[in-house]
Amino acid sequence: MGVLETSGLTKHFGGVTAVDDVDISVPRGEITSLIGPNGAGKTTLFNMLAGALEPSSGVVRFRDEEITGLTPEAIARKGVARSFQITNVFEGLSVLENVCVAVQARHRGGWNFYQHVDSRDDYTEEALEMLSTVGLASERDRLASSLSHGDKRSLEIALALAIGPELLLLDEPAAGMSQVEIEEMLDLIDDLAGEYTILFVEHNMDIVMNISDTVLVLQNGSIIASGPPSEVQADESVQEAYLGGVA
Ligand SMILES: Nc1ncnc2c1ncn2[C@@H]1O[C@H](COP(=O)(O)OP(=O)(O)OP(=O)(O)O)[C@@H](O)[C@H]1O
User: Fold this and answer.
1) pLDDT 10s digits, 16-32
2) Closest CA to 169 of 141, 140, 192, 147
3) Whose Cα sits closest to atom 24 in ligand 1?
4) Which UniProt keywords apply (predicted)?
5) What is the pLDDT confidence band of residue 113, given thresholds at 50, 70 and 90?
6) What is the rounded distance in angstroms from the CA atom of residue 224 to the CA atom of residue 170?
7) pLDDT higher for 110 or 160?
8) Are residues 78 and 182 in the same domain?
9) Which residues line the pocket of ligand 1, CB cutoff 6 A?
10) Hey, whose CA ends up nearest to atom 14 of ligand 1?
11) Which helix (H) or strand (E) holds 25?
């Protein structure tokens, strides 16, 4: 049984069915990617998993508990962290302060800007651990605004880890990155797998085929294929969906 499962998940926007009766199961500790042509419904599906959009019908279960229609904050508290959406980098704070704010928010059940972010040693220690995990410990005192694009995205992952999740939802983690940065991000995602379950949306096929345990292919709101990368790559309906450019 997957750590995250959907059944019959559907979203209509007026006359458009963006996500149509989707059943997925995301295995614990593995890397699952969600791919599909433009307009296939990937963002809409992600938004429903993370609570940013209420489904028209269907169910989302996390660790066997129904989370359908909960707020993004409630879903995050249950252990689903969406990087690049729930948390954002505060450009005017240092790298360490950013993570301390997020750790503090988890311990105090909300954001509190009136308490100095460095005032609790245990928050700092926890924040440093997260920075080590994403390879940013040596940048702890730099202003977040001065980080490279790739490092900023790693910091965003550290912020997502700060809420203590089991499942990480990553929106195009390598978008806009240089080849070197992409390789670092792939290593990071690989390191995180096992301890965390990862579901990510990605357009870059090299990345998808390289690191996914399972690939889910969405077209016109429906899952048309799912399985290991080699199997999905060889699937005729997937090749048609991409070559035909049909959304
Ligand atoms: N808020 C909205 N109102 C109306 N239609 C929407 C809305 N959001 C998405 N859609 C439609 O739903 C369908 C799926 O869109 P979605 O953005 O989920 O696809 P996607 O796979 O993420 O695409 P892309 O790869 O281009 O980001 C599209 O036809 C889109 O036009």
Assistant:
1) 999 999 999 999 999 99
2) 192
3) 38
4) Amino-acid transport, ATP-binding, Nucleotide-binding, Transport
5) low
6) 21
7) 160
8) yes
9) 13, 16, 18, 36, 38-44
10) 41
11) strand 16-26
The residue whose CB lies within 8 Å of the most ligand 1 atoms, and thus the one to mutate among 44, 56, 208, is 44
Digit-coded pLDDT (tens) for 32-53: 999 999 999 999 999 999 999 9
CA of 16 from ligand 1 middle (Å) equals 9
If asked whether residues 171 and 73 sit together in one domain, one would say yes
Burial class (CB in 10 A: 0-12, 13-18, 19+), 156: buried
Name the burial class of residue 27, with classes exposed (0-12), middle (13-18) and buried (19+) by CB atoms within 10 angstroms of its CB. middle
Strand order in the sheet with 4-13: 16-26, 4-13, 57-62, 65-66
Q: What is the pLDDT of residue 85?
A: 46
Residue 47 is which amino acid?
Answer: N
**Model pTM?**
0.90
